Amino acid sequence: MNSENISKKYEQQNLKVDIENIKSNFILKKIFENIKTKKLLEIIKYNKKLQIKLNKTINDYKEFCKLYSSIEIELKFDDDKYGKFINISKENKDYYHIYFDNSKEEIKRYSLNDNEKVKTIKIVINYQVKSFQRLFSNCKFIKSIIFKRFHREDINNMFYMFSGCSSLKQLNLTNFITNNVTNMSFMFSECSLLKELNLSNFNTNNVNNMYCMFYNCSSLQELNLSNFNTNKVTDMSFMFSGCSSLIDLNVSNFGTSQVTDMGKMFYNCSSLKELNLSNFNTNNVSIMSSMFEKCSSLKELNISNFNTNKVNNSFYMFDGCSNKLKIINKNLDFN
User: What ranges do the domains of the chain cover?
Assistant: First the structure.
């Protein structure tokens, strides 16, 4: 059954999706839409050929999947909200597993009663999709996402991945692999309850787009970007826009020689008191409009090496900043 037929079957049955070969991110997205809307979700997850090859029983095979599948994610929900899912474990009714695999046959599963609430779901993924685009976007009732295992280096797109996860309070990306990712735009946008985010393990060597990456993360107080390599990034507009609780931001390691757009990059970072951008190379930047607008707490801004020769849009760049703001620069010249 190809991806197109799977999607048609999904649309026809609405509450059930049979998966034989997940090759399309579209199909994976449909599965997560079921999670978002709390519909009954049934997944075919058993690869009989692999089980025979491994000479394992069904139960052994399930354990094998847990141990060796490439990615394992744990989701926890809001206390007052829950999803309805197929449970594969009689023993633990508060803990659920969904496996994505190149599947052939269905193994026995146990369904939930209507009054049973799902608190935690473990998702184990071993599939051919290379994109995580919009994977969790607008999952408004998930409060915790923990990547427990991540053994895939070929994921290349994280556009909108966690965008709109407005109830998310814990996001553990310690085991995350981003070596081949090129697009991180909107990745964490509108995660409005997230207070801290440690991305020190991120490899961003190949990322070229960080547009709106942390847009409106209004509760974010701690953001660790210490290992970010942004040498290939061309768009940083709106990157930290609306991060109104961010008190400290260290971007001293940022390479910006390829960036052309910094419009509203720090817009409404109203709690930032100082910002050192002395390392920023702005030789190719043409847009700086509203770059520091509404940074009302900013007392010192070091833009000593800014080159504005190519800037053609700098409207409202410092609008809403304090009159006492000390701007350190050598020669600011806006056409």
Answer: 1-128
